[in-house]
Input
Amino acid sequence: MTAPLTDLVLVEDPRFYDDRQFAVYDRMRAEALAYHYEPLDVFLLTRMDDVRYVSTHPELFSNTSGLTLNQLRMARDGAITAFERFNEPDGELVITKDPPRQRTLRSLMSQNLTPRYLSGFSQALDGFCRDLLDQVKDGEPVDFVDAVAAQLPLYVAAALLGVDSVDIPRMKSWVAALEDLTRITSAADLEEPGQRFDELKAFLRDQLARKRQRPGNDIMSSFLASTLDRAPVPDAVVLAHVATLMSNGGTTRLLLASIAGLLAENPSQVELVRADPGLLDGMIEECLRLMPPARGFVRTLTADVELGGTRIRAGQRVYLLYPAANRDPGHFPRPDSFDPARPQGYGHASFGFGAHFCLGAGLARMEAKALFAELLSRYSSISLAGVPTRYQHVQLNGWETLPVTFNPVKLARGQSKEDS
Output
């Protein structure tokens, strides 16, 4: 790979994000720790130390002026106002704020998504996992994304929000509309997802009105019973954060499919985890490290800062490349290998660090653990049943289709499935 980096670093092109990207990141770490990507005037960071430093210093690196490469691209092309349709004017999304306001909003979110609340949901989650896997026929090809990974997060979201009925196809359409925001290339492309997003907002407003009349043990009702600035939480804030919770089902879908894909590619590791269920948590973390569901986020400098020997000015932007940081050989020996027993002392970047550490991380891990604990209790291995297709997206990372077969555990004579 001898071409100049300007010919290789094509971060606006979804085709850049195949396995060849990692060799490009290695060169960037060797030649330009803060690589200036001129088309968007943004500095790309590939080293874990730099990604962590930026993430843990919000006073120097702001979230308020755009978070994705697509926002930078739309701004460059003069179409950034087209996104206004997708924002509640007073919604105050926590991810778009800096401290101290960010801390206030995060506290509101976290008190409605506590580990204690989620632990009470585990029985229902286990039931969803069993029901989905019951529909899979042993030894027959199935698209894991469509049959399992895309469905579980939507059932979970519906249950947590306490919606009256679960319309999975419609919910899939709404999640897809939110994902389209980070991959469209012109204002005209926003019209169709905009119509679906308007439908989502109307649905959530109707649910909100129902919860006012008949509150339940769900997150939407909990929001309505909470306060913000010593007053009831405004509807716009509730709606914005509820829509975000639903959209997080998209990244969880990608995580679940990535885990299944890595298990299909590494049958010996499946045997290890089946033999030692204590490795299940490490397996999930290793999958998050190797295939982060989000590729990264933008931050805007509030002061001049030097990163990787490069002076970056206030008002300029940096982009945190999670797939590169997660394979930084300075922190991860054998960075490209899949090792469920890998020590997780420093941690990966996939959920971020610091003030903006992903609020949904606990829920995503909980879903992954429940699903794959159930799956590995039933099946000895997962095999690819065709060629997977990558999700063509600059912001999000994973599989669009993943054809697999599940190979059931072979039981000894007289042994029941519960004994396996």
User: Anything to note?
Assistant: The chain has a mean pLDDT of 91.
